[in-house]
User: Fold this.
Amino acid sequence: MKKIKFYFVPLCLFLFVTNFFVTAMADQEPGHQEKVINITQTEDTTVYLDRLLYYALQKLGYKMNLTVEGMVSALVSADSGFSDGFLANLAGVEATYKNLIQVGEPISDVKFMSYTQTGKSIPLKSWSDLSGKKVGFLQQKPYIETHVPKEAYVTKYDSLNDLMEALQAGEIEIAVNPLAGGAHPFVIEGTQQNGIIEKLPSYTFLNKKYSALVPQLEAVLREMNQDGTSKKIMSGEITFNHSKNKIVLFISSYGGDTLWEQQLMDGLCENFKDNTPFELFRVNLNALYFGNNDYHWQVTSDMIHTDFLEKNPDIIVVADNEALTFVETYYHSTFNGSPVVFCGINGFTQNDISGFENSITGVTEEIAAKDTVTQMLNMFPKTKTIFVINDYTDSGKKWRGDIEKQLGNVQGAVHIEYNEDVPFADLLSKIKSLPDDSLILTGFYFKDSAQKTFIQDE
Assistant:
């Protein structure tokens, strides 16, 4: 009978320390009986701008729900009446979207920012200066698309990360992206702000079924702009939650059913209970079932966004890579200003926290694969093959990449083989077929190619 031994890669934990801050609270003014109005917005709109409109509508007796969509999709939704309005856009969109009415008082302004590679500033005084340049911007940005000269070489991207990474790699010379509602410029390593191409006021638009509400909302926004309320909301000085309890938001990559997640929750509750009154909210991304599903993530972000409109979480705790990617993707639109603590992150780089480096701290998972294999070979010197097992989820791929990097110099002494993405039954068959002089190194395995998942205890 073959004796194949299993080894589990031990972990080394490193702590990155920074300070976190708490959002101040202010008194909420009494409102009228609430009615619900559904507003669409784009993902580059900040939570402070959302909160500004939320406050204005609240003074008029409305509760606001939010949905995040691409620019064109959001405008179509508001124009069709599927949603009730659009949070912020430039004057003139009502010429195309006939069912939208502009609220006359500006809610904010929009700066069309340009970005270049670090040390490669390009003078830009107007849109025409982009002529002949390799320019990148996001999909569904019609104002940018119509103002970039035809002589420019244009590439469109699906996400801000993709746009900035293309700039970093030199695929484009200039990245253009709007900055609205108190948002901070989004830069990653190797990129820099290059300057403002144009600055314009932005306005809220309501579907014509709310035509009677337009002048009322305009008057409230004007009052808020004049008495400084808008400025205080945009700076984070004013929020609207009366609770003295601290709000802790725990976002897990998985479904909450692993021993690791349960231990994290127990640790959070144990550490907070004796220090300060707190409310713990939990969101499970269920990445083993959904993966990084854009629709699932968007719905989850919308839910969180609406739930925390009155006040940001005082701290966000994220567990494993998918949860950190989720927060990084939606930080400026949903979590802007909240401090973040991460744990269990594999293959950590600064790009994982681009855009909110000063608001995050955490613990990474460092895999000690080389040391583990060295001990394995010391114990079993006649070993010819080491079979490494990881799944093909994002976390599993990061584990494998780290293991491959560490075991590169071991290849000559022993054959290193990695499992394919196959159903679990096929993986068992592969294990049974290994020669007697084989050892198995098990890394991260929670899901097979048939989408069957396994809990930690299994």
In short: The chain is about 30% helix and 25% strand. The first strand starts at residue 6 and ends at 8.
